[in-house]
Amino acid sequence: MDNVFGYPDAVWRRFVSPERAGGLDGHDVVRVRARSPAASFVLELSFAAGPVPRARFRALGCPVTIAVGAWLAERLETQGRLALSELDAPAIRAALEIPDERAHCAFMGEDAIRALEAELKSRVA
């Protein structure tokens, strides 16, 4: 598939071949949603296998929305809970080279991370 719209390479690779796309099953799955007027995605984690989670995402939106979901799932699956404090809109924008006109996708990703942090804290308490 050709990148005729000139998306950054980090976005395009994750859009064309979105690893970790899909859902998780089980009673231990932590699921959060993030929405904007034009897009949405679901981020899911399972800690059944240990301290580093399995992570999956589902997204509806532009290639940047899909890339954000894929990148977040990748980071969470490789770095676990340690990644949470480091994941915010500026970090997402820098990693994926997201331009200003698509910044809302990175903020949607940050919203999902903050919701995930809150959900994980509520399950520990």
Please provide a written account of the structure.
The chain has a single domain, classed as Sufe protein. Chain: A (Alpha-Beta Complex), CATH 3.90.1010.10. The protein contains four helices and three strands. The protein has helices at 9-16, 63-79, 89-96, 103-124, and strands spanning 30-35, 40-46, 54-60. It has a three-stranded antiparallel beta sheet with strand order 1-2-3, with helices on one face. The protein starts with 8 loop residues before the first helix and ends with a helix. This is FeS assembly scaffold apoprotein IscU /modular FeS cluster scaffolding protein NifU. Residues 7-115 form the NIF system FeS cluster assembly NifU N-terminal domain. Pfam families: NifU_N. InterPro entries: NIF_FeS_clus_asmbl_NifU_N.
Write the SSE topology.
Blueprint: H1 9-16, E1 30-35, E2 40-46, E3 54-60, H2 63-79, H3 89-96, H4 103-124
Antiparallel strand pairs: 1-2, 2-3
Query: Residue-averaged pLDDT, rounded?
Result: 93
Number of helices: 4
Main sheet: strand order: 1-2-3
The CATH architecture can be named as Alpha-Beta Complex
H/E element order: HEEEHHH
- Indicate the structural class: alpha+beta
**What's the structural domain tally?**
1
Q: What distance separates the N and C termini? A: 47 Å
Fill in the CATH topology: Sufe protein. Chain: A
Helix content: 40-55%
CATH class: Alpha Beta
Radius of gyration over alpha carbons?
14 Å
Low confidence ranges: none
Main sheet properties: 3 strands, antiparallel
What is the number of strand segments?
Answer: 3
Shape, please?
Answer: globular
Proportion of residues in extended strands: 15-25%
